[in-house]
């Protein structure tokens, strides 16, 4: 009987330990929360890269070899701009999932127990982790301080790399160009072009637009959260403090 009580007590203790262990992982709400914090920051940067691209479009060689009226040119630029904006919004709508995958599914993953060896103690409910916890949690596991510790070394570079690849595949996809082409076609047709004139204009402008895409990809990769020359820093570091404070508020 006495033995049973001891066994029971031991079981209870291990259940409690297990429960508190699992509370150390960045769980679903934390995973979405931190991914959203990154994604909100990236959206600001991506908006500005797209704005610049679209602004440069109207002065680019979009109409080389295409003879149409100036007022129609303006309408076609508007159509292209709006098509690009829609596709940008879709891209940004996928960022939370993309960042979540980058942090929690790609290797090394920020998953798993943080007890061996124990570096930080889970704060009581309602109390945030601290930046000191980030320093102490010096190996990869599932708690928020681990993500914070490896933010510059692993988390941010991996996010940026994944976003650059996702951007390149979007901008090089047949559907990206096709959607823009449809926009051009409907603006040109609404503007009164028909038959061969319509085909020539749509094909000419679409080809000219397509030629700007490698440059857009290159600019994006060069500009997005880019390293700052001569400094160990990137243009996205300005978001770090806010992202960390959100991250450290999750249990
Ligand atoms: C996009 O640009 C980067 C950097 O210039 C390059 O490495 C990559 O191959 C490009 N991707 C495509 C699909 O053009
Ligand atoms: C760059 O800064 C990070 C921390 O932000 C540090 O871990 C790393 O060692 C630094 N690298 C160099 C080359 O100074
Ligand atoms: C925890 O962090 C969150 C997010 O930064 C903040 O709003 C909250 O006030 C912090 N809580 C405490 C108790 O400091």
Description:
By secondary structure, this protein is mainly α. The protein has one domain (2-247). 69% of the residues lie in helices and 0% in strands. The protein is built from ten helices and no strands. The protein has helices spanning 2-22, 28-57, 70-93, 95-104, 131-136, 144-149, 151-171, 174-190, 195-223, 240-247. α2 packs antiparallel against α10 (240-247) and α8 (174-190) crosses α9 (195-223). It is elongated and about 75 Å long. The two termini are 39 Å apart. The model is unreliable at 10-23 (pLDDT under 50). One 2-acetamido-2-deoxy-beta-D-glucopyranose binds at residues 127-128, 245-246, 249. This is 13997_t:CDS:1.
For the secondary structure, the number of strands is 0
The total count of helices amounts to 10
Main sheet attributes: strand count, strand direction, barrel closure? none
Q: Could you tell me which ligands this complex binds, including any ions or cofactors?
A: 2-acetamido-2-deoxy-beta-D-glucopyranose
Proportion of residues in helical segments: 55-70%
Summed over residues and divided by their number, the pLDDT gives a mean of: 92
Protein name: 13997_t:CDS:1
Organism: Acaulospora morrowiae
Keywords: Signal
Signal peptide: 1-25
């Amino acid at each position: 009987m006495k033995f049973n009580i001891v066994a029971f007590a031991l079981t209870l203790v291990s259940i409690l330990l297990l429960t508190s262990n699992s509370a150390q992982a960045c769980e679903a709400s934390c995973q979405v929360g931190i991914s959203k914090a990154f994604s909100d920051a990236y959206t600001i940067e991506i908006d500005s890269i797209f704005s610049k691209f679209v602004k440069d479009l109207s002065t680019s060689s979009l109409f080389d070899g295409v003879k149409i009226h100036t007022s129609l040119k303006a309408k076609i630029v508007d159509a292209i701009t709006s098509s690009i904006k829609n596709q940008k919004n879709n891209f940004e709508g996928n960022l939370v999932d993309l960042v979540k995958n980058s942090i929690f599914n790609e290797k090394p993953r920020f998953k798993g127990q943080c007890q061996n060896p124990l570096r930080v103690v889970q704060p009581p409910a309602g109390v945030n982790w601290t930046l000191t916890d980030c320093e102490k949690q010096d190996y990869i596991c599932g708690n928020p301080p681990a993500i914070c510790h490896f933010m510059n070394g692993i988390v941010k570079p991996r996010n940026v790399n994944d976003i650059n690849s996702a951007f390149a595949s979007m901008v090089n996809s047949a559907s990206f160009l096709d959607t823009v082409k449809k926009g051009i076609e409907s603006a040109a047709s609404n503007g009164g072009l028909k038959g061969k004139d319509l085909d020539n204009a749509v094909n000419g402008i679409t080809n000219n637009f397509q030629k700007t895409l490698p440059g857009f990809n290159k600019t994006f990769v060069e500009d997005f959260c880019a390293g700052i020359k001569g400094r160990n820093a990137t243009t996205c570091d300005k978001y770090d403090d806010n992202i960390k404070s959100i991250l450290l508020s999750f249990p």
